[in-house]
């Protein structure tokens, strides 16, 4: 790569986007693209994947065609680019007649540098042949995991992109994704490239994300306590059902949060409205199904909560990746329970898929369950799933970024208690649920115990040294470990598996992690702690003042607030307090176009702030 190309790229990086340095992994992808190579990049969300096709388009010129799966994401990226002075447009079904005409006028005049289209749009109406005549110089494929049947967002339209590339004249391709295990990566490369591409697999680590898990124990209370430190911040709460999104958002609104539901069953106009409010404004919490997510390009999402356990580590990683895209600290919390595990296993078993696909999906689910019940560093366990070795949070002076490294989690021998519980399962007929088993073990005389004569079992009362909640938790852990299975789809309850029989009859031992329970004093200390973003009072006051100015400008222009400036840039302004345009130019994220458009207004706000 000629030195002048890198110099040109760095100059544009600063003048257009306001950044002094590339993020890790970016330059390798950009350099390969500028050299005309096919590139396949797997980079975590927040690592600046979009820069990997935007910058080559500006350095080398010509027209870059960007395939993106969602209209909202296209419009968002076009809005950001045009405000930075980049000639970009999109062709999609939401375009007004004026927008479509302007896009084609610029295309025909050779003025556009980036054109965004959906895979469906690219497949129809002779668009490819028309674009070939205009001279597309490179093809960028965002969210490339959609092409793989092993990916969690498989979209058949992506399978047409290899033919589209050929029809465009075999132009170089840059394909990017944030989430793909080894099997998915191999499938993507095979589907999109005629020969092995230049591959860049960057670290999957997101050190700015804090990972936390907790067994379900009054989930509404757990979520409300978690959100207390994030008042004023934007976030997503993922739920497993449409009704749950409605109920949870209503409950959070009653507590004073600007909380909105989002799911595929909502009327389209309301769904779009709620998404736009989340994208455009600050301090909005969306309670959503997984219908909400891919293409959400909001950089200042401060937290992601899973109210129910995700079905795989790929889905989990993709969804928590929507937090902290700006690189600032962000929190995650995943709640899980035995009902989640049973539901996910049942869903896989009921799918009309081949046995090999079912086996792989069970393997992925078991990996997710293992992450929930792990006694090891969450980050290490998560990264190991993607084939990456790393030190634990406790290594050296690294910040504690998971709940296990911050607590005292460790594996302990649970064989004796497990045998007591498994014996209760066997002696009661292998068809009762966790609550009834806990009643047997604690010697609690319930109506069902009396009716079934289970007070006469040898195991009745043998576990009085532990609480009912402790026995219920052990049932969950044994189910997670594969020692128990669901007895009946219709009626629930548990039965022994071969592994459970081995433990019961002394052929196998089992070690399990004790649950981490924060006491009320710990929870109260968390509520009274400093701001989640770590800003001192004076800086925080100016940051909020600048956010209000940003919001008013964004509303006037009809765009998302972060398109004006990101939170990261506003925090830098609040800390540095620039007094003139030259000082403002040095702030990360302030390019020349934005300096001209907004610099004076923000300097005036900083100078006039008396906090």
Automatic annotation (TrEMBL):
Residues 30-198 form the Helicase ATP-binding domain. GO terms for cellular component: bacterial nucleoid; cytoplasm; replisome. GO terms for molecular function: 3'-5' DNA helicase activity; ATP binding; DNA binding; four-way junction helicase activity; hydrolase activity; metal ion binding. GO terms for biological process: DNA recombination; DNA repair; DNA replication; SOS response. Residues 219-372 form the Helicase C-terminal domain. This is DNA helicase RecQ. InterPro entries: DEAD/DEAH_box_helicase_dom (IPR011545), DNA_helicase_ATP-dep_RecQ (IPR004589), DNA_helicase_ATP-dep_RecQ_bac (IPR006293), Helicase_ATP-bd (IPR014001), Helicase_C-like (IPR001650), HRDC-like_sf (IPR010997), HRDC_dom (IPR002121), HRDC_dom_sf (IPR044876). Its EC number is 5.6.2.4. Residues 536-611 form the HRDC domain. Keywords: ATP-binding, DNA damage, DNA recombination, DNA repair, DNA-binding, Helicase, Hydrolase, Isomerase, Metal-binding, Nucleotide-binding, Zinc. It comes from Bosea vaviloviae.
């Amino acid at each position: 790569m000629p030195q002048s190309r890198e110099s040109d790229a760095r100059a544009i990086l600063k003048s257009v986007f306001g950044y002094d340095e590339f993020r890790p992994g970016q330059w390798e992808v950009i350099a390969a693209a500028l050299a005309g190579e096919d590139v396949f990049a797997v980079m975590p969300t927040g690592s600046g994947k979009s820069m990997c096709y935007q910058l080559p388009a500006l350095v080398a010129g010509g027209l870059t065609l960007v395939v993106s799966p969602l209209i909202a994401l296209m419009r968002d990226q076009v809005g950001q680019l045009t405000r930075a002075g980049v000639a970009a447009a999109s062709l999609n079904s939401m375009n007004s007649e004026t927008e479509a005409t302007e896009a084609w006028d610029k295309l025909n005049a050779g003025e556009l540098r980036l054109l965004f289209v959906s895979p469906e749009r690219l497949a129809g109406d002779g668009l490819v042949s028309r674009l070939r005549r205009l001279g597309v110089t490179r093809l960028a494929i965002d969210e490339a995991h959609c092409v793989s049947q092993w990916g969690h967002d498989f979209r058949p339209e992506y399978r047409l992109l290899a033919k589209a590339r050929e029809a465009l004249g075999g132009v170089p391709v840059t394909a990017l994704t944030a989430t793909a295990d080894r099997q998915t990566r191999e499938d993507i490369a095979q589907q999109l490239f005629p020969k092995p591409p230049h591959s860049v697999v960057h670290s999957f680590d997101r050190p700015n994300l804090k990972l936390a898990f907790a067994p379900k124990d009054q989930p509404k209370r757990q979520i409300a306590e978690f959100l207390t430190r994030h008042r004023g911040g934007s976030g997503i709460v993922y739920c497993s059902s449409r009704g749950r999104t409605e109920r949870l958002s209503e409950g959070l609104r009653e507590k004073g949060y600007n909380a909105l539901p989002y799911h595929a069953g909502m009327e389209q106009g309301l769904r779009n409205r709620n998404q736009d409010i989340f994208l455009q404004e600050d301090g909005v919490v969306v309670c959503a199904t997984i219908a909400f997510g891919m293409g959400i390009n909001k950089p200042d999402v401060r937290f992601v909560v899973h109210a129910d356990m995700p079905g795989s580590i790929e889905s989990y990683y993709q969804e928590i990746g929507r937090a902290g895209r700006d690189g600032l600290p962000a929190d995650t919390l995943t709640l899980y329970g035995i009902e989640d595990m049973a539901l996910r296993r049942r869903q896989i078993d009921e799918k009309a898929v081949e046995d090999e696909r079912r086996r792989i999906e069970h393997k992925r689910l078991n990996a997710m369950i293992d992450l929930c019940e792990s006694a090891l560093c969450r980050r290490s366990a998560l990264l190991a799933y993607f084939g990456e070795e790393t030190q634990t949070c406790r290594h050296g002076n690294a910040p504690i970024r998971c709940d296990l490294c911050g607590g005292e989690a460790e594996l302990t021998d649970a064989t004796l208690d497990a045998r007591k519980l498994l014996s209760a399962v066997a002696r009661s007929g292998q068809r009762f649920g966790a609550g009834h088993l806990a009643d047997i073990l604690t010697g609690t005389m319930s109506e069902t115990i009396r009716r079934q004569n289970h007070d006469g079992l040898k195991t009745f009362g043998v576990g009085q040294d532990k609480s009912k909640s402790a026995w219920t938790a052990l049932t969950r852990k044994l189910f997670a470990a594969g020692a128990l299975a669901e007895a009946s789809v219709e009626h629930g309850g548990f039965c022994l598996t071969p592994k459970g029989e081995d433990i019961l009859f002394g052929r196998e031992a089992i070690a399990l992690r004790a649950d981490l329970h924060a006491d009320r004093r710990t929870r109260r200390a968390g509520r009274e702690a400093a701001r989640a973003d770590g800003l001192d009072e004076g800086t925080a006051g100016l940051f909020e003042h600048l956010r209000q100015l940003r919001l008013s400008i964004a509303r006037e222009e009809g765009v998302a607030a972060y398109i004006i400036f990101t939170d990261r840039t506003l925090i830098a302004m609040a800390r540095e307090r620039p007094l003139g345009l030259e000082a403002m130019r040095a702030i990360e994220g302030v390019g020349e176009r934005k300096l001209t458009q907004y610099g004076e207004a923000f300097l005036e706000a900083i100078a006039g702030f008396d906090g």
